[in-house]
Amino acid sequence: AQSVTQLGSHVSVSEGALVLLRCNYSSSVPPYLFWYVQYPNQGLQLLLKYTSAATLVKGINGFEAEFKKSETSFHLTKPSAHMSDAAEYFCAVSVSQGGKLIFGQGTELSVKP
Amino acid sequence: AAGVIQSPRHLIKEKRETATLKCYPIPRHDTVYWYQQGPGQDPQFLISFYEKMQSDKGSIPDRFSAQQFSDYHSELNMSSLELGDSALYFCASSSMTEQETQYFGPGTRLLVL
Prior knowledge:
Oligomer: heterodimer
Helix content of chain B: under 10%
Strand content of chain A: over 45%
Largest interface: A-B, 24 and 27 residues
Helix content of chain A: under 10%
Largest sheet of chain A: 6 strands, mixed
Structural class of chain A: mainly beta
Strand content of chain B: over 45%
Order of helices and strands of chain B: EEEEEEEEEEE
């Protein structure tokens, strides 16, 4: 069965600093991987996705993630944090088109001025 | 661009009452998913429908039922509500041309008193 582990339930960075949110997955078949962002009292917004094309995926708002099969990782990065990036970030995995998403526990990102 | 619509956005019910949540997928999306997100938790898959047929089932209580209609909208019916059913309920949709990607609605926040 597939699973997702997000290391660090809370991450705090200074404005302008690098953002690194960690995600490791477990899957017996090639996965589809996603990062979603959730702002307070809002729904889940798709940031980016990996679907077996390029291993380095660029998303919205300057975020990107790299799929590393050998490390079973899909970490999310952004070179320079902005105050508006403060939110909850969820990594998710699916093993089939149209299949359910399995989410990680989420990482709350705080950005300090 | 049109997004997933959920109604109502907020719902307050008493224990043992019934609730109906509605989801209107993005136009031309034929697959609908339902997720439950408890306070401080990650979203958990409940059930999905493809072309009006149930396609997958997760940890959905027997007190809950759902269906997808001919216009592709979906309804989640919840009976004999319990305090533990208080959560944010998300609907997501996907299309045939992008089956692996789910787009989420803003959610319905259900409070059971």
